[in-house]
């Protein structure tokens, strides 16, 4: 069996071991693959693994030997699943590998916005504390989380993990969720209530045609001017121009983002030079512990496919 990994670098930049994958068959691992090289590098492959490299319908139709596509992520929009289904090619994803890591990043952004640890540390190293007349100083408001309200949009695995952390901090938690899913300590609410009543709003819903850009000028206007927006979900959930305008006008106190609509972002993205907007480069998922789980599930997915009992199939 021939296995081709199209873009293995983000999963394994060198701190993991590919031995388990090599044990499953003839294995070719590429750090990155330009779109035009997908058919050439995938020629003769029975199995393709991809993270962000697109497998279009045209590419899939040029690969007659292909039987299985494993997406090295939870989202699988990089694969034309309809074209794969037509060819009876199984497509799988990796669910629930990064829940704890993403929830941790949510609170890294929340704590940054409320404590401004890095900003104060830079000030100390620049000599501000040494020059202070008092034993302490602060250049930004210091905000206690206890009794503030966290609004969660999307109460899936990650949303629930974030809720548990919020409750541990003594926060009140509201959640808007399309399903009737409930959680102890979390108050269900509609979208407008979540936006208008929350001190922090965190996005954990999947991206769909219906909710693309739903954080826009109108919905941002519902939020408190003292509130923070956190997005570790999908960049296109947010109208970035509207968010930038709200931040510049002081209609929102800050934003913590791990995802943008285009990644890497173009230099003219309006959020890159926006006040009180903190952006991390889509790394919430990327702790070593999470990547180890991702790799383990990817290997077990292939093993299940080889045994005739595929799991985590997204195109049944």
Task: Kindly describe this structure.
With 316 residues, this protein is of the alpha/beta class. It has two domains: 2-97 and 288-306, NAD(P)-binding Rossmann-like Domain (Rossmann fold); 99-279, NAD(P)-binding Rossmann-like Domain (Rossmann fold, 3-Layer(aba) Sandwich). Helix content is 31%, strand content 15%. It has a seven-stranded parallel beta sheet, with helices on both faces. Strands 2-1-3-4-5 form a five-stranded parallel beta sheet. Helix 5 (99-115) crosses helix 7 (157-168). The longest helix has 19 residues, at 288-306. The protein starts with a strand and ends in a 10-residue tail after the last helix.
Secondary-structure blueprint:
Blueprint: E1 2-5, H1 19-22, E2 26-29, H2 38-42, E3 47-50, H3 57-61, E4 68-71, H4 81-86, E5 90-92, H5 99-115, H6 117-125, E6 149-153, H7 157-168, E7 172-176, E8 186-188, H8 191-197, E9 200-203, H9 217-220, E10 228-231, H10 240-248, E11 254-257, E12 277-279, H11 288-306
Parallel strand pairs: 1-2, 1-3, 3-4, 4-5, 6-7, 6-9, 7-8, 9-10, 10-11, 11-12
- What is Rg? 22 Å
What is the correct CATH architecture of the largest domain? 3-Layer(aba) Sandwich
Gross geometry: elongated
Identify the CATH class of the largest domain.
Alpha Beta
Question: Largest sheet, described in full?
Answer: 7 strands, parallel
């Amino acid at each position: 069996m021939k296995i081709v990994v199209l873009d293995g670098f983000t999963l394994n930049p060198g701190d993991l071991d590919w031995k388990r994958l090599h044990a499953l068959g003839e294995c070719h691992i590429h750090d990155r693959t330009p779109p035009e090289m997908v058919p050439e590098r995938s020629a003769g492959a029975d199995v393709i693994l991809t993270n962000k490299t697109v497998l279009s319908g045209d590419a899939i139709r040029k690969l007659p030997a292909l039987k299985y596509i494993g997406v090295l992520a939870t989202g699988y929009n990089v694969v034309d699943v309809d074209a794969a289904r037509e060819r009876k090619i199984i497509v799988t994803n990796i669910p629930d590998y990064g829940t704890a890591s993403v929830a941790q990043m949510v609170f890294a952004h929340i704590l940054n916005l409320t404590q401004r640890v890095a900003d104060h540390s830079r000030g100390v190293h620049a000599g501000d504390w040494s020059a202070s007349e008092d034993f302490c100083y602060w250049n930004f408001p210091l905000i206690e989380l206890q009794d503030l309200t966290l609004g969660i949009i999307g109460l899936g695995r990650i949303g629930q993990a974030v809720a548990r952390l919020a409750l541990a901090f003594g926060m009140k938690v509201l959640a808007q969720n399309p399903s009737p899913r409930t959680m102890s300590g979390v108050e269900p609410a509609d979208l407008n209530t979540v936006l208008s009543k929350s001190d922090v709003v965190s996005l954990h819903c999947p991206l769909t045609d219906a909710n693309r850009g739903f954080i826009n000028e109108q919905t941002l206007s519902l939020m408190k001017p003292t509130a923070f927006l956190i997005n570790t979900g999908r960049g296109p959930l947010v109208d970035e121009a509207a968010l930038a305008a709200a931040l510049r006008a002081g209609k929102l106190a800050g934003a913590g983002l791990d995802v943008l609509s285009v990644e890497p972002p173009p230099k003219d993205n309006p959020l890159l030079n926006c006040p009180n907007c903190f952006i991390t480069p889509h790394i919430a998922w990327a702790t070593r512990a999470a990547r180890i789980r991702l790799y383990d599930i990817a290997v077990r997915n292939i093993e299940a496919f080889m045994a005739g009992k595929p799991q985590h199939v997204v195109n049944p």
